[in-house]
Structure formats: structure tokens, C-alpha cells
Amino acid sequence: MSWPPRRVVVVLCGGVAIIKALEVIRRLRDEGVAVTPIMTASAQRFVSPLLVQALADASVERELFDAASEQRMGHIRLTRDAAAILVMPTTADMMARLAQGRADDLATAAILAAQCPVVLAPAMNPAMWSAPPTRRNVTTLQQDGRIIIPPARGMMACGEEGEGRFPEAQEVIEELRAALTPKVLRGRKVVVTAGPTREWLDPVRFISNPSSGAMGVAVAQAARAAGAHVVLIHGPLTVALPAGIETVAVESARDMAVAVEGQAPDSDIGIFVAAVSDFRVADPKGAKMARSDHPEVLALVENPDILAMAGKKNWFKLRIGFAAQTEDVAEKATEKCRRKQAHLVAGNQVGAGLGFGVGANRLEVVDREGTVSAWGPEDKRGLAERLIALAAQRLERIEEAGA
């Protein structure tokens, strides 16, 4: 299912973290998702239904035994054309009731009658989260097909510290997005490189570029949402690391090459998004250079070309490179694809409003024959989902040809 979905049912439960849940509703609305809110009786003791109605821009559903609603079997119809149900903050009591299959209020009845994915975002005291009954309920709910977002670790409102905090709003939305994504890469391992690298001149200066790592992180998230085990090998990022993804931090191009080689043997797909420095300083200094001591000529040596190395050594069943260009994007991407023995190269336009440090991008994805798929301008996550869908198709084609 493409993002954003048309409609999501949000079930609000009674807990202090309901304040954070309201931020999730606001962000869903910002992304164009219609929200149908259901509030439990305890949720209404924490926040006003009027506030939720204003945030969701929709009437709040509260009562199972509402004559007007139940004339149309409201507890069933509420979820029939919904893409998903998001339950937050899922309390220990709500988890217990759902695990038992209870249907004694509107929220539990609607969830039991649902035919769409149900995503739970628990938040509770750490001792309650780790208690044996809660652990049994988690297992039961997962066996029933419910998707549970693990709570974060940190300081709780009660003053205790541990695992039980409500996840950040963007993480909840990411898990919801993943729940609605076809698992075309289930069972696959995908390695993604992201961000810039740094090549030091001395202890305080380095050669680098303005890559934030946002495109690489988006590709890693899209691959995980598609069911893959993802390893994100990244340089110094200026965006947050994604939750639920294995990460390997590196600094230089040589560090990144070593990390990629270590992951390659048991991986299916390598996607090389990182903006790797082509050169490093031949003679980096161990102490800060004074202005008066700067060399007239800075000697540079070539760094490893990681994509070309992967092609030469035949790492990964499918290799996808990126090529940031200011002009002739498709032509230069095709040449890179052939020269470095990649299967696909995504040429990305950089310039005003596109590429480094901005939310949108434009991609021209080519193969060795020069076939072009042009996408965008579009947000980087949307482009990443397109690329992962294409990667799954190409991998299947490669394996069929080799069978």
C-alpha cells in the first residue's frame, strides 16, 4: 500500500504518554492521513475529546452502545475501509484485554472486528512492561498478528528509569508505514551506505562534503519496511539514526570499504548511497598546522572506490550505486553503471532545492543498457520506496536468470 494511506483509526488509551500520542495524530494529519479517533473512558480522563477532535479534524468515537452509531453496526464499520488501527499509548490493561479477545467497549470491539493491521505502541512503568503477565500478553498478541512497537528506554514520568517510554512520534509513524508495506524483501539482507566520509588534514581540519545522510537513511528504512534485515554503514550523519536497524559507524572512505567488505559475504543487495570522499591527504599532520606552516600544494591520494570494488569482486547479488550530478544526469549515471559493474545507478540531481541537505530529490535510475526511470521531485522516503520496489524486482530477475 502506498503512503500516505487514506484513513487510519487511532485508539487512544489512558496513560500519561497520551500527550505524545497527540503529536502522532498531528503528524499523520500533516501527511494527509484521515484520522478516525476512538477514546477509551480512561483516555477521556487525561485529555478532552474536544482537543482530540480538533487535532484529528474528525468526531471522536467513544461509546459502544451509541444508538445512532450502532444502528449501522458502528463498531464494525469504523474499521472496514481503514488501512490500519494504531493503539496508543497501549497500556498494560489494554494489552491484557486485547490478548484475551475482550470486546466490552468500543475500542476493543472495533479492534476485534478489524480486518486490517493493528499496531500497538505500548507505554508503561518499566516493572509493568517486564512483568511476566505482560510478557505473556506480548507473545500472545504477536502470535495473533498484532504489531508491537517496542517502548524506548529512559526516565519515566513516575521517576523510575528503564524500558517503557512511549517512542518518538516519527518512530511510531515509521512503524505504521512499515506495517503497510509489502514484504518484498523478507528474508533478504541489505547493506546500505550513507552520509559523508571525512579525510583529516590535521586533528582539526578535514575534507568532506555537505551530505546529511538523509537519502541513505531513507533507503535503509524503506528496505527494513519491505522485510529485509538491513545493515546501515554510515559516516558522520546530521540526521537521526533510524530505529530498528543495525548500524555501523565509520569515518573515512577506507573505514567504509572495510565495513562493506565485512558485510558482503552473506548479503543479497548492496546500495551505495554514501557520498564518499574520492581523495585523502597523502601526509596528514599529527598536530594542528599553523597558518604560517600551510603547504603551497596539498598532496592527495585516491581513496578506494567501494562500488567499483564490489563490482570487481562480485560482492552482492544486486549492486546499486548513486551518482550526484549537476548536469547530464542519466548519461553520467549510465557510464558509471557500466564502468563500475553495477546493476543500477540512481543519478540524483543536485542544485537549488534538490540533493544535499534538503527534503526533496530527483532520481534518474539507469541500468547498463541506459534504460531510464525518472522519478521526482519527491520526498526522499518516497523515492527510497520506489527504489526498493525496483530492487526487489531486479533481484528476482537476476536469480531467475541464474537458476
Can you walk through the features of this model?
The protein is of the alpha/beta class. It folds into 2 domains: about 5-180, Flavin prenyltransferase-like (Rossmann fold, 3-Layer(aba) Sandwich); about 190-400, Rossmann fold (3-Layer(aba) Sandwich), CATH 3.40.50. It has helices at about 20-30, 45, 50-55, 65-70, 75-80, 90-100, 105-115, 125-130, 130-145, 170-180, 215-225, 255-265, 305-310, 330-340, 380-400, and strands at about 5-10, 35-40, 85-90, 120, 145-150, 150-155, 160-165, 190-195, 200, 205, 230-235, 245-250, 270, 280, 300, 320-325, 345-350, 360-365, 370-380. The strands form 5 sheets. It has an 8-stranded mixed β-sheet with strand order 12-11-8-13-16-17-18-19, with helices on both faces. Helix 1 packs across helix 10. It starts with 6 loop residues before the first strand and ends with a helix. The model has no long low-confidence stretch (mean pLDDT about 95).
Descriptive key words:
single chain; 403 residues; alpha/beta; Rossmann fold; 2 domains; 8-stranded mixed beta sheet; 5-stranded parallel beta sheet; 15 helices; 19 strands; 36% helix
